[in-house]
Amino acid sequence: MKNANNAEVIINNKRYLIRGYESEEHIQRIASYINSKHSELKGKDAYRLIDSDTRNTLIQINIGNDYFKALDNTKELNKKIEEKNQEIYDLKHEILSLKVKTDENQKENKELKQQINDLKKQRNK
Questions:
Q1: Which pLDDT tens digit goes with each residue over 65-92?
Q2: Domain ranges in the chain?
Q3: In angstroms, what CA-CA distances link 86 with 82, 106, 124?
Q4: Exposed e or buried b per residue across 22-54, where buried means at least 16 C-beta atoms within 10 angstroms of its C-beta
Q5: What is the pTM of this model?
Q6: Are 15 and 9 in contact (CB under 8 A)?
């Protein structure tokens, strides 16, 4: 079982002690991400005019939006991976089929060469 980690983070100029099972570096990355969202929204004039609850809700909406975009992107990438895996499977199957045909052709070629040699021998007799 994982041990819980403590990490002191600063989010929107406030200190928080976060306890979780992720690494301290991971927790710091999350705090940094949230701070970047705060900074992004602070640059907008309308953001300064609204109350703190609405500000926090806007940040939550932005983070949720980023999450769902990442989730959709992950689904799309997984779909592409599945398509590529199917393509690889189809190509492997085609390669095996071509190998079987090549082996059959080589066998037939060998048989035809043997027949030619036999005919040459018969002709020379």
A1: 999 999 999 999 999 999 999 999 999 9
A2: 25-124
A3: 6, 30, 56
A4: eeeeebbebbeebeebbeebeeeeeeeeeeeee
A5: 0.67
A6: yes
